[in-house]
């Protein structure tokens, strides 16, 4: 299939509007230069209002109307939310909370996707839809449902039986499970798999760390398994149609281990690109770019932004120009589709005040015209064959679903948030220096990298440890930060020297830790509530090459040297425990250990000093994102609210505004410039 490199479009819900409105809306999309529309999501009972009663005629008409206007259709298979008639027929689909209470489906995504009855009906709908539309000339791709990974876990009896079977398949014998869960601790030994219950009792009580991690893995595997079944349905009945999905693996309530099996789920990774409406908060758009890299992983295909920021719940939109800035920023980070969420602000329902391109009365807001500008510019860039240079990446950042789960469980110890405080902080060191990376799962790495950063990988399984060992042996530089390798694959603390499985590779032993601030715990020790006020006891910094980096250290580990050498030191610490950063020459490579959680400034220095020449600091002001493009073009994106001047070193011509620049490019807040040297 010939797929455009850049697509701009919108999410549209024709079932919300009269058929007389469809043509007017699609004409407006065509006039805006939109090339794709996403349809079908969130409307199972509009296709199947009653069991085995199907009403696809309305969608047939919409598909034909899209084709007549030259608009391609990304068609979602809407298996969530499940229709109420299915909940009524099979109550096992309903969500049961941690207290054992069945919950009515009062909001979307309140179905147990692992329930066999749900899957039978959902996959039946999927098969009928795929067969019906696979040969339609408007078809671009199928979507594997909307936002799988969001919603709620179900702790029903039927889910428990599936969990028990999952455990038996994994551990084979109850003896193996008892060892892995350390059940002899506090008299929790199991005699058979049917003795297992979910390690939650109400919303406040969590069981032991070992079964809690396995429970989260079980729920994750069920989502992955369901997504693979949807993929199989499409590939069986429409082998030539690409597949993507607007999943939500990063959802804080549910989520799943996406990179464990993403290669077997999608052809093109999909995302809801939501940086937020406040661009002053840079973590929003940096995090959106990080999630894009995470979902691409090691695939050699671009991202599809199946949903893209317009407004938000209660927020009409960001400052003017920011949506365009977001679109180009996402494109630089390998996204080829900007599909606005949503076309028209919804009159009712749960997203009544989530504002789209059109206002509630159907009038065109400024966001419509900004998306129109994006479409016009992207179509022009397509005609001029100005493309990204998606070269292979020499730097990788490791991400671990298990480590994220473990750190959330044990918040009294892991005070630094795993995703925001470790992974995002690492990513910023690359983002602010305009350096690309892949985000990888150490359990299965298919490409070679020169620098690999492992931020706060608190759970270290044997597969990940073997990957790190092999990388260093073969000449890579691996940088691992504090909190890493504290527990093994069963979520039990290592009995061997830390970092577990890797002490010899890094040439050190971690011998404890301290905090420069008072430690606040949720455990009521001695029956007396403690003062929750955090007090700073010490001012600790990190020094490299006799220069302090200006870091306000909270948590720091004590590092004992073995074969490694010290390359960084804590300030204001006793000499015997003052080693902060170490480097060990191991076989052909280097293993660097950092005794504090990931810090952008520190990681920048380390990559600059030990990055084999592939890491260089950006020569443009902070907040300017730039990349070399094809045919001697360069893009500059101002992500800040300040006007910035950039030294171009030679005369150049602007592509978007068709003007000449005499060695200086002045770029306004949230503006984008593409120049040809």
UniProtKB/TrEMBL annotation:
EC number: 3.2.1.23
InterPro entries referenced in this protein's UniProt entry, alphabetically: Beta_galactosidase_C (IPR013739), Beta_galactosidase_Trimer (IPR013738), Class_I_gatase-like (IPR029062), GH (IPR017853), Glyco_hydro_42 (IPR003476), Glyco_hydro_42_N (IPR013529)
Catalytic activity of the protein: Hydrolysis of terminal non-reducing beta-D-galactose residues in beta-D-galactosides
GO MF, one example: beta-galactosidase activity
Chain ranges of the Beta-galactosidase C-terminal domain: 635-676
Pfam family, one: Glyco_hydro_42
SUPFAM superfamilies, alphabetized: (Trans)glycosidases, Class I glutamine amidotransferase-like
Top-level taxon of origin: Bacteria
GO CC terms in record: beta-galactosidase complex
Top-level enzyme category: hydrolase
A single GO BP: galactose metabolic process
Domain Beta-galactosidase trimerisation: 395-610
Domain Glycoside hydrolase family 42 N-terminal: start-end pairs: 12-379
Keyword field: Glycosidase, Hydrolase, Metal-binding, Zinc
Protein family (similarity comment): Belongs to the glycosyl hydrolase 42 family.
Name this protein carries in UniProt: beta-galactosidase
Gene source species: Clostridium beijerinckii
């Amino acid at each position: 299939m010939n797929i455009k490199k850049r697509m701009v479009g919108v999410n549209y819900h024709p079932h919300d509007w009269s058929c007389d409105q469809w043509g007017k809306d699609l004409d407006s999309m065509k006039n805006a230069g939109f090339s794709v529309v996403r349809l079908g999501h969130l409307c199972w009972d509009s296709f199947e209002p009653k069991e085995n009663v199907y009403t696809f005629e309305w969608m047939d008409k919409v598909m034909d109307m899209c084709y007549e206007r030259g608009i391609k259709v990304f068609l979602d298979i809407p298996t969530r939310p499940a229709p109420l008639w299915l909940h009524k027929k099979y109550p096992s689909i309903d969500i049961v909370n941690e207290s054992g209470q069945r919950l009515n489906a009062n909001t979307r995504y309140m179905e147990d996707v692992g329930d066999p009855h749900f899957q039978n009906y959902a996959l039946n709908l999927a098969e009928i839809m795929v067969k019906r539309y696979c040969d339609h000339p408007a078809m671009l791709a199928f979507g594997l449902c909307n936002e799988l990974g969001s919603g709620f876990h179900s702790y029903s009896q039927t889910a428990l039986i599936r969990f028990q079977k999952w455990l038996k398949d994994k551990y084979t014998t109850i003896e193996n499970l008892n060892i892995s869960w350390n059940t002899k601790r506090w008299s929790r030994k199991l005699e058979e798999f049917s003795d297992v219950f979910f390690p939650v009792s109400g919303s406040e009580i969590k069981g032991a760390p070992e079964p809690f991690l396995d429970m989260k893995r079980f729920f994750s595997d069920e989502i992955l398994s369901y997504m693979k079944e949807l993929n199989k349905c499409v590939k069986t009945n429409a082998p030539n149609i690409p597949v993507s999905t607007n999943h939500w693996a990063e959802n804080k309530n549910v989520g799943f281990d996406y990179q464990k099996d993403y290669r077997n789920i999608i052809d093109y990774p999909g995302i809801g690109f939501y940086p937020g409406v406040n661009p002053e908060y840079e973590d929003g758009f940096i995090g959106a770019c990080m999630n894009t890299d995470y979902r691409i992983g090691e695939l050699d295909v671009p991202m599809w932004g199946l949903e893209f920021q317009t407004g938000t719940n209660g927020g009409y939109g960001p400052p003017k120009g920011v949506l365009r800035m977001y679109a180009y920023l996402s494109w630089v980070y390998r996204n080829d589709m900007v599909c606005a969420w949503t076309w028209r602000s919804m009159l009712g329902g749960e997203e009544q005040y989530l504002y789209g391109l059109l206002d509630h009365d159907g009038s065109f807001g400024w966001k419509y015209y900004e998306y129109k500008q994006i479409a016009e510019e992207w179509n022009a860039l397509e005609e001029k064959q100005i493309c990204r240079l998606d070269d292979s990446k020499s730097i990788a950042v490791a991400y671990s679903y298990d480590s994220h789960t473990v750190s959330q469980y044990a918040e009294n110890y892991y005070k630094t948030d795993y995703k925001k405080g470790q992974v995002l902080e690492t990513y910023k060191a690359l983002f602010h220096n305009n350096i690309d990376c892949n985000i990888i799962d150490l359990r299965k790495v298919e490409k070679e990298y020169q620098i690999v950063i492992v931020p706060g990988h608190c759970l270290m399984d044997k597969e990940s440890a073997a990957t790190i060992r092999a990388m260093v042996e073969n000449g890579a530089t691996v940088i691992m930060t504090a909190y890493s390798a504290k527990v093994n694959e069963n979520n039990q603390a290592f009995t061997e020297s830390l970092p577990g499985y890797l002490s010899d590779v890094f040439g050190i032993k971690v011998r404890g830790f301290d905090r420069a601030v008072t430690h606040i715990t949720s455990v009521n020790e001695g029956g007396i509530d403690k003062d929750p006020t955090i007090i700073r006891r010490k001012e600790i910094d990190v020094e490299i090459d006799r220069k302090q980096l200006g870091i306000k250290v909270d948590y720091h580990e004590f590092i004992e040297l073995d074969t490694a050498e010290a390359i960084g030191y804590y300030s204001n610490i006793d000499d015997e425990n003052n080693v902060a950063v170490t480097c060990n020459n191991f076989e052909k490579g280097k293993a660097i250990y950092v005794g504090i959680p990931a810090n952008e400034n520190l990681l920048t220095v380390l990559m600059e000093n030990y990055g084999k020449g592939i890491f260089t600091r950006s020569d443009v002001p902070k907040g300017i994102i730039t990349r070399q493009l094809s045919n001697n073009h360069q893009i500059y994106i101002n992500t800040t609210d300040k006007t910035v001047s950039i030294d171009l070193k030679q005369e150049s011509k602007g592509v978007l505004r068709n003007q000449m620049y005499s060695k200086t490019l002045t770029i306004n807040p949230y503006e984008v410039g593409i120049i040809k040297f």
